[in-house]
Design brief:
- The chain is mainly beta and 174 residues long.
- It has a single domain, classed as Immunoglobulin-like, CATH 2.60.40.1890.
- The protein has one helix and eleven strands, in the order H-E-E-E-E-E-E-E-E-E-E-E.
- Strands 1, 2, 3, 4, 5, 6, 7, 8, 9, 10 and 11 form an eleven-stranded mixed beta sheet that branches.
- A hairpin with a 2-residue loop joins strand 5 and strand 6.
- The N and C termini lie far apart (69 Å).
């Protein structure tokens, strides 16, 4: 039985594209400042100190933390975060002493920063696609109004482990 050539070509295309996706997923992204991050002196937005805390069982959600620096002369807005580790990623920040969801995003002031750290905000990755274990990495696509999409690689750390030394510390924003 002979396979029609369009089906053979389509099958080969799917196989090649699938392999390319697997290879791309296996290639580590650049890491800046010793922790997960995206750094480039030409970018007005720099993300550093990214990490994800291993979820407490039986939770199917994990918190991601990082610092966003805005070196531009005008504010930019972190509009959304997408992670391949879960179905959704929701930005939470502390306002008036309460944790709030930020569906419209968060503004990073000109020459300012946004610090997401324990007690001052995080990105909650929900409906995890699998188990997150220390030593693994999670990719986060941060979409900014002006700077566009910045992909950050965040290592997963153990539930009780101290935050990495390059991790964010301090308040919510300045």
């Amino acid at each position: 039985m002979r396979m029609p050539w369009p089906a053979a070509v389509a099958g080969m295309a799917v196989a090649v594209l699938g392999a390319a996706g697997l290879i791309r997923a296996a290639v580590p992204l650049p890491v800046g400042g010793g922790g997960g991050g995206a750094t480039s002196s030409s970018l007005p937005i720099v993300v550093s100190g990214a990490y994800v805390r291993q979820p407490a069982p039986p939770t199917d959600a994990a918190a991601a933390y990082f610092t966003v620096y805005n070196s531009a002369g005008r504010p930019d807005r972190l509009e959304s975060v997408i992670s391949g580790a879960g179905a959704t990623a929701v930005l939470h920040s502390v306002e008036n002493g309460r944790m709030t969801v930020n569906p419209a995003g968060v503004t990073i002031p000109a020459h300012g920063k946004l610090v997401l750290s324990t007690g001052s905000g995080h990105v909650m990755i929900e409906q995890l696609f699998g188990t997150l274990r220390p030593g693994q990495s999670v990719n986060l696509d941060l979409t900014f109004a002006d700077a566009g999409v910045i992909t950050v690689t965040a290592p997963v750390i153990a539930l009780g482990a101290p935050a990495p030394t390059t991790a964010p510390s301090g308040g919510a924003s300045s």
